[in-house]
Design goal:
- The chain has nine helices and nine strands.
- By secondary structure, it is of the alpha/beta class.
- β2, α4 and β3 form a beta-alpha-beta unit.
């Protein structure tokens, strides 16, 4: 699911672990914030679209599609898009955006995917993998539903950023959780994510049978310079998210190929 983020100084620890990541509880407020803000609309989504390139006729799984803004853009560019998300509330908003005939499913990425082997040409996973402690089972399923030569295009919180805003600093080389509150519509919502070192991310892709194609630290859309002059400078001069394109080898014949 795409995630709105503030700069690290605005992230505060949260003790409300039991209610963390309740997207159903803040779906409307989140979707409104995500629609045209700097970080999502002028940085993360444009970077994902650029990495996807020409998607005309490609079958794309939007894994963690949220309210569907990335799905909508990919569909406008000619892709055949299927969306999945663990939040029924977010999918209701996606259906409102994409129409009653949109191919949307409530699916938790920790569970097996309800799709055939090789069903998709691409998977996009926009700011979603960092909700998982163990990427292994999820990446294995994403690889399974991709055809040989297919791509996984993913964005995550940059591991350096997640490391530096924790106090005291964690063991960089360990997989550690971190918590904070998002403030949406004037209300705090507790969140919990998982930070991995960079090598653990690339190792997870390789262990799942992917071949690393691109690691990207992109710049925001130049159009944001006039709209968000202060924020644009921040995004242009420090890390925020990390983007990957990984591929299923063309000769692959299945999850163990």
């Amino acid at each position: 699911m795409e995630r709105t983020t503030d700069v690290p100084e605005n992230l505060v620890p949260s003790a409300e672990q039991d209610r963390a990541n309740d997207y159903d509880g803040f779906a409307e407020a989140y979707s409104a914030e995500n629609e045209d803000n700097l970080v999502n609309a002028y940085y993360e989504r444009p970077a994902m679209v650029a990495l996807a390139g020409d998607v005309t006729g490609r079958r794309i799984l939007d894994a963690g599609c949220g309210s569907g803004p990335l799905s909508a853009t990919l569909r406008e560019r000619g892709a055949v898009v299927t969306g999945i998300d663990a939040s029924a509330g977010m999918l209701a908003l996606a259906r409102r955006r994409l129409g009653d005939d949109a191919d949307l499913h409530v699916v938790d990425l920790s569970d097996p995917l309800p799709f055939a082997d090789g069903a998709f040409d691409d998977v996009v996973a926009s700011l979603v993998l960092h909700y998982l402690e163990d990427w292994g089972p999820t990446l294995a399923e994403l690889r399974r539903v991709l055809r040989p030569g297919g791509r996984l295009i993913a964005s995550v919180d940059h591991p350096f950023v997640a490391y530096t805003f924790q106090d005291p600093r964690p063991d960089y080389f360990a997989t550690t959780s971190y918590t904070f509150d998002w403030t949406l519509d004037g209300k705090p919502f507790p969140m919990r994510l998982w930070r991995k070192p960079l090598h653990a991310m690339t190792d997870a892709f390789t262990a799942a049978g992917f071949r690393l194609s691109v690691i990207s630290e992109p710049q925001p859309d130049p159009a944001a310079r006039e709209l968000f002059p202060d924020g644009f400078h921040d995004l242009s001069t420090r890390t925020t998210f990390l983007f990957f394109v990984v591929e299923v080898p063309p000769s692959a014949t299945g999850a163990d190929g």
